[in-house]
Amino acid sequence: MKNFYRKVAFGLGPKDKIPSDPLEWATSQLNEIPEFSWKGKILPEKELRNYYRDYVYGDRKVLRKKFKNDKDGYKREKNKLRHVTGQKFWWNLELCIRHSEALKSETPVLAKLWYFWGNHFAISEKDFLAQYTTGAYQREVIRANMNQTFEKMVQEATVAWTMIHHLDNNDNVGPKSQEAQWAKEKGRKVGVNENHARELLELHTVSPECGYTQEDVIQMAYVMSGWRPNWGKKRLETGDVHFNGEYHQPGTKRILGKKYKSGRKSLSAVITDLVNHPSCREFIAMKLCRYFITDNPTKEMMEPIIKAWEKSDGFLPDVHKAAVEVAFNYSKKYNKFQNPENWLLIMSKMSDVELVPTPKLMDLYTLGLKPTHEQRSLEYLLRELGHHPYLAKQPNGWSDVSDDWMSPELLIRRLVYAKEAYYKKNRKSQTNEFYEEMVEKNYDNPSEILKTINQQGDLSNKHVILFNLPETLKS
Amino acid sequence: MKISRRNFLKGSATTLFLAGFNFPVLANTTKKKNLVIIMLRGGMDGLCAVPIIGDKNFEKRRKDLILDETIKLNSDFALHPKLKNFYNLWQNNLGAIVHATNIPYTKRSHFDGQNLMETGGHIPYAIKTGWLGRGMKLGELKGDGLALSLPMPLLLRGIPSNDNFYPSKKRLPRTELLQLLKSVYADKSEHDLANMMEIIANRSMMSSGGTSMSRKNSSLAYKAGLELKKINGPRVAVFEVDGFDTHAAQGGVNGSHSDSLIEMDSIFKSLEKGLGPEIENTLVLTLTEFGRTIEQNGGRGTEHGYGSAIFMAGGLLKKSQVYSDWPGLKRKELFEGRDLNSTIDARSVYASAMSTVFDIDFKRIQKEVFWGDDLQNLSDKLFKV
Known about the structure:
The complex is a heterodimer of chains A (475) and B (385).
Chain A: H1 3-7, H2 22-27, H3 45-66, H4 71-84, H5 90-103, H6 108-120, H7 129-132, H8 134-142, H9 150-158, H10 161-166, H11 178-185, H12 195-204, H13 214-224, E1 227-229, E2 241-243, E3 253-255, E4 258-260, H14 266-275, H15 278-292, H16 299-312, H17 316-329, H18 340-351, H19 359-363, H20 377-385, H21 408-422, H22 432-442, H23 446-453, H24 459-466, H25 470-473
Antiparallel strand pairs in A: 1-2, 3-4
Helix pairs in contact in A: 3-4, 5-6, 5-8, 9-14, 12-13, 15-16, 15-17, 16-17, 18-21, 21-24, 22-23
Chain B: H1 5-19, E1 34-40, H2 46-49, H3 56-61, E2 71-72, E3 78-79, H4 84-91, E4 95-102, H5 110-119, H6 131-138, E5 145-147, E6 163-164, H7 175-187, H8 191-201, H9 217-229, E7 236-241, H10 256-275, E8 282-288, E9 308-313, E10 322-324, E11 344-345, H11 346-358, H12 362-368, H13 379-382
Parallel strand pairs in B: 1-7, 1-8, 4-10, 4-11, 5-6, 5-7
Antiparallel strand pairs in B: 2-3, 4-9, 8-9
Helix pairs in contact in B: 7-8, 9-10
């Protein structure tokens, strides 16, 4: 059952007491959204978006013209612009904030669920979103809504600037809209872009299980047409998202058999119906079980989560508690393969690795300079592990199925970075006693595990083996 | 301009006719054939890499980007002068080009386009596996894929147990430790983990100790060539080259587009070196999301376009040729009045290549990998069947 601490959180650290009631320990973390435990600077999304603006404007409108015959000059000045706008720094700062929640906060279970939702409403690798706003979006839109209803989270994520840009809703123009008329007169071609509409149905809410058709997707795109950044000559595509009726498809739309009037309010009305569709709660329940328990969740596992959803109208703390309880009940029978980021955090927490740079070090950063090696360490490390949470390859986020993480190179990374991490530990935790205590605290079969790791004399090797044992890789 | 669209169709019809007189070849079932895909990310400019000769429309509309000293391939097409290794292959009948081709995607987003070039589908993100992974599954090539990258590219998804190689900057633990883990995995019936550890422990590629091995594509390509050469080695390898998205300072011979083309060229060279004589049983193809506009922009770069070209190399090619159903570059011949059109669905080339290398009937690939889409079997026009 001790794998439960790793399953829903990141194991127990040397200073953590063994909870007398593990389930109560976990569920009590899910009621409130506490302040971030990161004590350094935290920037609002809007401010970070302005840095994004400065970068794209500077590159697209200034440098490309100025250096049109000078490839090297262009490269040089573009690099300067990267640093002036903090392109290599902000995402590292965001990762510090993110990982502190797992390692330093009183609510690691909430953190593990935060990562789940960030990946559910994934912002995959596109343009420079990862470098500037993805982390902030995950703070302000995802985490901030984890004590609200699922509906509220969907409403806000759907019109978040980062999401709208990510899924091209700025290119989604109603073919009978005013804008389409004007475009036609000027000989330009515009029309619907279904990306965002499809993902709202497929990935964020009801999933294909609900049986929507391609026509539903198009109708959804019509409903979404007009939700776009407030465009400006200087801010380009980085303005706040608003509803612009000139881009909106007029007329009644029909989605999953229900009619919706045209206009600003229709999107919110559709979302309300989507989140209340039975397929939506089934889909989310399945994904939560897949994240915590097994690649192939059963109906029995999903049921208590669906019930909690129905009883609470999708109030997330209740849904989360139900999921954690199911994870607890199945913890003996099922072990879930941990993705590289969660594995890294488990290792860091249990063995007391100073993974996250200090707030002091991060706050020393000055815009315009290249961040130091230390300031960039997290971003580099996650990329080396093959799992950078802001760089998912597709809008469906990183996989939570173990097959997708089974490759020689990905396992090699766990071997070599386990070793690296060992040398980041303080001396006090580099003793045999430290490891014995940690194993006792975190595993149900401590003597077997100690016997295995003690086949190696060197402590750093013991560390590598421990964190690559099946019991750790799968929790 | 001498070339008209129909000339090329005639040419290929002749080829088709001759193919009917194939000499019977002794069946040699043990011959291992390899397929290598190089993904060119960002939109490779087929007109920069393989420019048309003597087309006034072309010269007028990108006058600052016209290359000097191109290498003449035939009466109609030239080669970018920096593609020396590819030209070398061409001269030995080991290099060919398909021109005016693209995946059926016309909307000019990298993001969607790259997704579709890997899935082979029509709707971005609708398909979660890659066409190569599905083709390998059809050919029952489990465990035969090698990605020269970390994480696994979408292109290879659809079949489990692919290998990947992307050198870690750190030293691998000692063999003893790996053996210990392997035996623990085996004892606990963790077969997947045990298999992986087996691959890791026996990895010849890692034998130099794993420290500071280069991640340059040319170095990876050499290693991949050595692996593909082995009779029990992988049969499929996948590379990625970035940086083709040259909105500014695309430049001429020494411009930024050239830099990425040179990197591609270095993969050809290193693969050839690593493969040695096995280049004869190998097919290398490039893949990109779209071509670039004919017209240069204000920053002397190009914007996202449509039709591009596919570079092909290896001994499984029929001959050196620029295979094309050339659409022309007059405004009305362009896609939406701005881009080189695509007259050959690039997936026809990839389906034909998989049919040739994996020995699977083209129709099965068409049906099971590409959902029965309307694709042409180009195997006997392009490859040694």
